[in-house]
Amino acid sequence: MSILTNKVAIVAGSSRGIGKAIAMAYAKEGAKVAVVARSESEGKLPGTIYATAEEITKAGGIAIGVPTDITSEESVAAMVKRVEAELGPVDILCNSAAVIFYERLAETTLKRWNLIFNVNVTGAFILTKAVIPGMVARKSGAIIHLTSSGAVGARKGGNAYGSTKAALERMCKGFAVELKEHNIAVNCLDPGPIRTEGAVLTRGPSADWSGWGESAEVIPSALHLAVQTPASMTGQVLRRIEYNAKNA
Q: Which sequence positions are flagged as catalytic?
């Protein structure tokens, strides 16, 4: 039996990149997967929620694409309701959704500052709150949020993003303490520098990619966190590599 057989997983930000790799890995391990993002059609980046769900289905898995704005309580609530109706009670939430841009703090507009916090922190908060009631009722659940080395190391540019990840990690520790009595594990996963479609768009294809990994390299860590309980691991940040300012 695969390690996630009969589990239901929501993977936010899974139309491409790390989130897609995780969604497909969860499905391969037996989970029924909700592919969640706003990407119903391709834009600047390739990949959609429906394309990811179709890949999973063609590979023999079970998945549905659910368009969701994670910054909206109404949109997230509707998504969870649909997932529960079509796939079953949610056992795993893995959130890979994020906004990132590289510029100095002094040059960051308030509009961009608010946007990045709204997606990376408030969105994570809304997603977590939405799955808690069902997990509490069943006394079981695993919640995983993807973070970044930017939470612990400053660099020239990207510090707004790093600030959101520092806030995210602290929030997860708080949720972990509060949900431990309900047998719900809450952890963060720092995948390290991964060359995704978004990273290439942001940094440019001619950037130095030495030291950067591929999305598939994150899978073992994402699977490990999906099966944790408070008795084994909660309130932790799993960092795949040591912080390196050059590659972050």
A: 161
